[in-house]
TrEMBL record:
Belongs to the NAD-dependent glycerol-3-phosphate dehydrogenase family. The gene is gpsA. It comes from Marinobacter zhanjiangensis. NADPH binds at S30, F31, R51, Y68, K125, A157, R272, V296, E298. HAMAP family: NAD_Glyc3P_dehydrog. This is Glycerol-3-phosphate dehydrogenase [NAD(P)+]. Residues 23-177 form the Glycerol-3-phosphate dehydrogenase NAD-dependent N-terminal domain.
């Protein structure tokens, strides 16, 4: 599809003045920029908070964020700022795109700036080490009087900024909140579906990053199309086994936030996690691959936490274990693949035919 014919290009009617609402986006990286752009183009007043003053100035003067989204201009009523309090003060909804490592610290530092009943939506796909907490759980602890939700799905920022057709999922218990987020974000290139399984949607978004690293590695080794399908399917089996054991709804994994996000992240070199896996598969050291990326690849961190958690609750996760052995245990990729391929053969869909525990495959 050419730039001129993209559904959102100039044909997307901006929100009418009565549809114009005030929102905030926290985090000046790739995804914060993409979501600020969607919201501003929809015609809302967007308060865009980031810590870097130079980035704020560039956004004000040139309407670009060249460090994270070179060549992308943001139109509309955008208010970039380093003042957290002024960003969230009048916002009906606050969208948080802060990497998981800094998420609690940022929210805790500014907790008193949030207002009671304000909608706060996490866009972050990661897990906190201490207590294996998801971002919505952190929000619940730090800003308990807000209304909390999670947005997750196959949402590559690099495509959203070009108005390429995208769908996502808002997960929240409160139906009114789900509707509000659908209204705020939905437009002719961005569709928002709803789910009530907050835990499943959120955990799925974090887990798929691990498998994107694995897939990137497999692509570097040119393992073939059958292998790619096997890997994707067994990744889905493994992540859903883990998440369901912790309380997620298995059906969530059939949706956009499950299989949808897994497919896009495991098959696209636009995914940072996939790129890290690819680089390691080509022989790079992990630290060099991450440094070269210059952006967050949550899966590296999530891998450690999930490996630990899976062992502590006794969930069999051979792909997580294999990736951990490669990245942190010095195992060769070929030896790990060989181990996986020669493990005892087991059931395909374990929700239909339960896995035999002796045949850990
Ligand atoms: N980029 C993408 O395509 C998507 C990303 N996400 C998720 O969004 C989250 C954020 O990722 P990106 O924006 O892509 O990362 P990024 O690496 O592009 O940017 C991270 C941003 O966070 C800021 N940051 C880091 N520590 C901070 C702190 N202590 N205080 C204030 N700001 C801080 C950085 O300055 C930077 O602006 C991640 O959890 C990621 O998984 C979710 C969907 C799509
Ligand atoms: O979550 C994403 C797409 O849905 C982005 O994935 P990466 O963080 O690997 O770029």
């Amino acid at each position: 599809m050419s730039e001129n014919t993209r559904p959102g290009d100039g044909q997307s009617p901006p929100a009418s003045s009565e549809g114009k609402r005030s929102v905030a986006v926290l985090g000046g990286g790739s995804f914060g920029t993409a979501m600020a752009k969607v919201l501003a183009e929809k015609g809302h007043t967007v308060h865009f908070w980031m810590r870097n003053q130079d980035q704020v100035l560039e956004l004000i003067e040139q309407r670009t964020n060249s460090r994270y989204m070179p060549g992308v201009e943001i139109e509309g009523d955008l208010h970039p700022t380093t003042s957290f309090a002024s960003a969230v003060a009048d916002a009906e909804a606050v969208f948080v795109a802060i990497p998981s490592k800094a998420f609690r610290e940022v929210i805790r530092t500014h907790a008193s700036d949030f207002t009671d009943g304000q909608i706060v939506v996490s866009l972050t796909k990661g897990i906190e080490r201490e207590g294996f907490k998801l971002m919505s759980e952190i929000l619940q602890e730090e800003v308990p009087r807000t209304r909390i939700g999670v947005l997750s799905g196959p949402n590559l920022a690099a495509e959203i900024v070009n108005r390429e057709l995208t769908a996502t999922v808002i997960a929240a218990k409160d139906p009114e909140m789900r509707r509000t987020v659908q209204e705020l974000l939905g437009c002719d290139y961005f569709r928002v579906y709803a789910n009530v399984d907050v835990y499943g949607v959120e955990l799925s978004g974090a887990l798929k990053n691990i498998y994107a690293i694995v897939s990137g590695m497999a692509a570097a080794l040119d393992l073939g199309e059958n292998a790619r399908a096997m890997l994707l399917t067994r990744s889905l089996a493994e992540m859903s086994r883990f998440a369901v054991s912790l309380g997620a709804n298995p059906m969530t994994f059939m949706g956009l936030a499950g299989i949808g996000d897994l497919v896009v992240t495991c098959t696209s070199s636009k995914s940072r996690n996939y790129r890290v896996g690819y680089a390691v598969g080509m022989g790079a050291e992990l630290d060099d691959a991450v440094a070269e990326l210059g952006q967050v690849a949550e899966g590296i961190h999530t891998l450690l936490l999930v490996k630990e958690k899976a062992e502590s609750v006794g969930i069999y996760m051979p792909l997580v274990k294999g990736l951990y052995d490669i990245l942190y245990g010095g195992a060769s990729i070929r030896a790990v693949i060989n181990g996986l391929m020669t493990a005892v053969q087991n059931s395909d869909v374990e929700f239909i035919l339960p896995r035999t525990l002796s045949g850990q495959g």
